[in-house]
């Protein structure tokens, strides 16, 4: 079967279509026939070698972080899934490769597809839904009544993060460009700041939680809207020592402590806390949130669809910054 793979890190990453064998289901795994796969900025970052030292992919590495599809084979030790089940999920970061027709995935990383969703919509969710859930339910522990500020509220992540924060009972403020102000309100944001014409500091103060999706200067700038005792969760800022533990590389803890010293110190001066998040696969969390998807509290937002064999175009659009709000998804058609 054809698979879209990173074959070399030279020249900013060489991506090619390869012929690969269909994988068998190992212990604890199922093989999923991919019906749709979502794109994420992470695909480009991996291709550009940004995770080369940390994850150490052996090339060629098939790209693609998430999927929706149908179980075609069940490996030994798997009890929760059967052939023919509709599933969605995000394989573990060292087991990616959904830009093809079939992939073996740890069953623990999958969940039954929410009723009422098509494959395309379902494939747009796992990575961003897990990111938002882990940011707000694990790192920041958002409670009803908390005030949450989300940068980039109509991006792939922001559009789902708004809905997850609202689902948890928060008041939500967000930044978007002028053309997306109405959409951000439709997604549930209570305060919408047009970042092209307004300064969010004038509208957002004393917040409990900030989700930093922009990084660079915006990390320290947006931290200033936190109240004392508040929490910034950054998905793009400097990694903190906890990330070294998550990677299973405690030896990197001092490095990440040093790297994050400035931002952690800035947070401390404000009486707040800085936490870096690198989302992880978690089928159980997806299953837990499925009812909120089924009752319409959390709705997927797909801006563009392509066929699997149009992946180059999809990747170009993703990199261009000109995509419509929400996610880009490639579909595997028979
Ligand atoms: N660490 C993790 O686990 C993790 C997980 C998911 C995502 N991420 C990272 O999070 C970032 C966002 O991901 P995504 O999937 O949402 O990307 P995306 O779909 O490309 O969205 C980016 C969004 O940022 C907005 N934006 C750009 N400049 C802005 C500014 N100055 N102020 C406010 N908003 C601005 C854009 O809005 P306009 O189009 O309206 O300008 C767009 O909606 C990426 O860097 C990604 O790698 C990290």
From TrEMBL:
Organism domain of life: Bacteria
GO MF entries: oxidoreductase activity
Record-annotated Enoyl reductase (ER) domain positions: 12-330
Lineage start: Bacteria, Bacillati, Actinomycetota, Actinomycetes, Actinomycetales
UniProt cross-references to PANTHER family, sorted A to Z: ALCOHOL DEHYDROGENASE RELATED, RETICULON-4-INTERACTING PROTEIN 1, MITOCHONDRIAL
Pfam family, one: ADH_zinc_N_2
Entry-linked InterPro entries: ADH-like_N (IPR013154), ER (IPR020843), GroES-like_sf (IPR011032), NAD(P)-bd_dom_sf (IPR036291), YIM1/Zinc_Alcohol_DH_Fams (IPR050700)
Record-given protein name: Enoyl reductase (ER) domain-containing protein
